[in-house]
Amino acid sequence: xxxxxxxxxxxxxxxxxxxxxxxxxxxxxxxxxxxxxxxxxxxxxxxxxxxxxxxxxxxxxxxxxxxxxxxxxxxxxxxxxxxxxxxxxxxxxxxxxxxxxxxxxxxxxxxxxxxxxxxxxxxxxxxxxxxxxxxxxxxxxxxxxxxxxxxxxxxxxxxxxxxxxxxxxxxxxxxxxxxxxxxxxxxxxxxxxxxxxxxxxxxxxxxxxxxxxxxxxxxxxxxxxxxxxxxxxxxxxxxxxxxxxxxxxxxxxxxxxxxxxxxxx
Length: 265
Prior knowledge:
It is a single chain. This protein is α+β, with helices and mostly antiparallel strands. The chain is 29% helix and 18% strand. The chain has one domain: Cathepsin B, Chain A (Alpha-Beta Complex), CATH 3.90.70. Strand 7 and strand 8 (213-218) form a beta hairpin. Helix 2 (54-69) packs across helix 3 and helix 3 (78-89) crosses helix 4.
């Protein structure tokens, strides 16, 4: 399997929405475990085997995950992701020279302003950024907003494949010798989703959604590789629950996105 990267280094933008505005949501103690093993989030490749469109594929897979949690399916295909990749990064379909990846904040801004167009509808997320070093906040995003949209710095060791082309069953900072350079960023930047987790200790496993499948990793790996974290809320799709932002928290997220679009954030 070919696996492409394409997430630029994290680049904050003036006035971008921050999940810190939702004080009750982001600061509360996250669930000690998040078990979604019986739910299929339907991760799809969405062109990330031929293009560096991981930022666009990540949003498409966030739609899949959100719909799965609400008990239905939503159709996001490769053409949708590629079309959004072109709109959000300047990629020109068919011109490899323009396939340069994307900046997560700019890609999310495009989704907020212009929507993520599917064959039969266009969906608009609200979003906000979180402190990537706050793993409790990352867990709250996963638990309350379907999945955490992350930018990570992958090491060459993370890209190691066995003879069948499979990645290591678990990404960890304490990997076997001979798997390549373990330095974060030595392979490049990538966008993926954090879907669930078995616990909160350094060696407890999380489930990531990337390259059309699930990938296990340890929390210490997440801490080592993460460079940015964002939450997306699809008010058209999300099934509200006890962990979903409501009341003042929801109003604060709406206000932060409105201010950003208006240039007053």
